[in-house]
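sry for the spam today, last one i promise. struct tokens for design, 512 residues
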């Protein structure tokens, strides 16, 4: 490790040369305090490039931990980060007409323009601070200022003709189903984007570090970037992209969420590094360039809010696409072994169907039920339980019962004997021991009816269940049926006694 100390004069001479262009751009931006200076992509791009190089040079010499240079380094880092945010906002602004996004609850175009103006003002304040710090450090500030015209961005209308040959793919349905499924699975992992709907602005800071942090936003950003790459690899410039107009719209949804997450990652980084009381840089907190309130508003009310809204729109678009390209099939599966379709299995089945937005029917005894509705599945379970009881009544009738007038103790003993006999035969499952039988058995009526009624009561109260080999049929989108069949292979998420079990990674979206 090199432990040599560079002299302050030598270091100042080095920075004076290397910071010349950065300070030139800062002078131009600082003029925004007195006259309009438009932030363009060429201007934001040059500022970002110069700030990145300067920050790397300062860090190489340990400026972060040097009392004289740490403020200059912090201001450089601020310009770098917000120049990058400004560039991404400009990219969104220029790309919106081509994304063909549907309207959302609030005006995204106006919000983007508002925050672009705010970032421009922030860069001007940071530039004023950088120039003041450069003067304090005796760094020369260029006497040859830049002009607005140096960074103008004239954009003639029109686009280049799309005259490249289209790529061919084997199966449009397979490709679109694969892409839409990948989007839906990622959407299920992105609940964080709806956090802003559950907290008030006064609570934004309390969201750090859990559930909100730079790290988990960066993870989502990475996943959406991968999804965008997946689209570009398998769909861009193919025949199906030109034939199905919903595909470029889906690409627009993926891209805008990705770019908003890029912005959110930068903002979360700045908050954690510079403004957070627990983790931030005290130097910048004392003389902040951006207020905590403004930064968190941009993070939550703009980046996270619109990312969540466009995520939801894209989710609905994918569900429509899956319906259009669905391959209809049928699968016959066993009824859940523990109490049939009670709350847990019914809910998991419905969540799978809702995840894909497809129409799936549960068929039983000639009746069809909406598999996307837990209540409809509960109704099917009533039919299943009725079938179980009819079957069991036949089995009970084959067991010899005591004759004659029996007292209450004898009736109770006969009922218990039948239940234990059926359990030994594997026809009943006992979930509770000892069983809580009825307090009073009437002397009226025949014994067979009393036994059957008591077993029905014990089943309804969850003390026992009737073991049969009943099956039901799901019909609909083959992709959804695959997940439903996988769910049945894992016991509908529970063991034979109703205990929660681990689902496979392919169904991880059910646990979120």
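last one done:
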């Amino acid at each position: 490790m090199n432990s040599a100390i560079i002299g302050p004069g030598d270091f100042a001479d080095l920075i004076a040369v290397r910071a010349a262009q950065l300070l030139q751009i800062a002078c131009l931006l600082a003029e925004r305090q007195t006259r309009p200076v438009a932030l363009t992509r060429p201007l934001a791009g040059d500022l970002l490039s110069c700030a990145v190089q300067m920050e790397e040079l300062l860090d190489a010499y340990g400026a972060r931990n040097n009392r004289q240079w740490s403020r200059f380094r912090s201001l450089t880092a601020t310009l770098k980060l917000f120049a990058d945010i400004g560039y991404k906002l400009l990219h969104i602004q220029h790309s919106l007409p081509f994304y063909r996004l549907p309207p959302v609850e609030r005006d995204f175009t106006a919000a983007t323009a508002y925050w672009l103006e705010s970032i421009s003002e922030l860069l001007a304040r940071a530039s004023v601070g950088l120039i003041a710090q450069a003067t304090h450090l005796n760094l020369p500030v260029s006497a040859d200022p830049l002009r607005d015209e140096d960074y103008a961005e004239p954009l003639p209308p029109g686009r280049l003709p799309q005259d490249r040959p289209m790529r061919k793919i084997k199966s449009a349905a397979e490709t679109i189903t694969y892409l839409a499924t990948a989007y839906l699975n990622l959407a299920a992992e992105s609940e964080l984007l709806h956090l802003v709907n559950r907290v008030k602005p006064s609570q934004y800071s309390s969201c750090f570090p859990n559930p909100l942090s730079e790290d988990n936003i960066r993870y989502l950003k990475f996943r959406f970037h991968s999804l965008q790459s997946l689209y570009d690899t398998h769909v861009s410039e193919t025949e199906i992209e030109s034939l199905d107009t919903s595909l470029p719209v889906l690409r627009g949804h993926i891209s805008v969420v990705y770019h908003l997450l890029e912005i959110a990652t930068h903002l979360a980084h700045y908050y954690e590094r510079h403004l957070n009381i627990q983790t931030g840089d005290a130097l910048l907190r004392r003389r902040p360039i951006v207020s905590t309130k403004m930064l968190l508003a941009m993070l939550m009310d703009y980046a996270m809010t619109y990312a969540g809204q466009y995520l939801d729109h894209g989710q609905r678009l994918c569900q429509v696409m899956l319906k259009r390209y669905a391959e209809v099939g049928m699968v016959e599966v066993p009824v859940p072994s523990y109490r049939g379709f009670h709350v847990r299995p019914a809910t998991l089945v419905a969540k799978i169907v809702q995840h894909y937005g497809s129409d799936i029917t549960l068929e039983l005894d000639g009746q069809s039920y909406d598999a996307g509705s837990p209540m409809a599945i509960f109704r099917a379970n009533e039919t299943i339980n009725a079938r179980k009881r009819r079957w069991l009544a036949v089995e009970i009738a084959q067991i010899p019962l005591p004759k004659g007038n029996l007292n209450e103790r004898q009736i109770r003993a006969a009922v218990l004997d039948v239940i234990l006999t059926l359990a030994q035969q594997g026809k009943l499952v006992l979930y509770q021991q000892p069983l809580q039988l009825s307090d009073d058995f009437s002397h009226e009526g025949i014994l067979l009816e009393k036994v059957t009624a008591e077993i029905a009561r014990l089943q309804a109260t969850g003390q026992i269940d009737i073991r049969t080999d009943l099956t039901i049929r799901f019909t609909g989108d083959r992709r959804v049926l695959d997940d439903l069949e996988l769910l049945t292979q894992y016991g509908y998420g529970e063991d034979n006694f109703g205990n929660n079990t681990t689902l496979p990674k392919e169904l991880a979206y059910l646990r979120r």
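The mean pLDDT is 91. ok im logging off now
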